[in-house]
Amino acid sequence: xxxxxxxxxxxxxxxxxxxxxxxxxxxxxxxxxxxxxxxxxxxxxxxxxxxxxxxxxxxxxxxxxxxxxxxxxxxxxxxxxxxxxxxxxxxxxxxxxxxxxxxxxxxxxxxxxxxxxxxxxxxxxx
Length: 126
What we know:
The chain is mainly β. About 0% of the residues lie in helices and about 45% in strands. It has strands spanning about 5, 10, 20-25, 30-40, 45-50, 60, 70-75, 80-85, 90-100, 115, 120-125. The strands form 2 sheets. Strands 2, 4, 5, 6, 9, 10 and 11 form a 7-stranded mixed β-sheet that branches. It has a 4-stranded antiparallel β-sheet with strand order 1-3-8-7, with no helix packed on it. Strand 4 (about 30-40) and strand 5 (about 45-50) form a beta hairpin.
């Protein structure tokens, strides 16, 4: 059973930055692609970014391209989401999730993910 724990959320002013972390419990962490998702009050959950198990492939939602960067450190069983130039519309609970792919260079934001963390709140406000 893979367990995921997010951290790094908080309150930040518009234009500021935050780095979210997703720490995994499993020694087979590098077998999984990791995705970041978010859900704002009254809105559906949306995919933000994902990274393949090898780290060689990434995808981003159009709304965050050029502002967010996903990366992973398999030696530390951790995936990061660096969020720059934050906007009030980025306010949401952010979740990381994991799923295995047969290819180590694949990830998708519309695919079903098997394991989910508990979420971390990000609030962008002045």
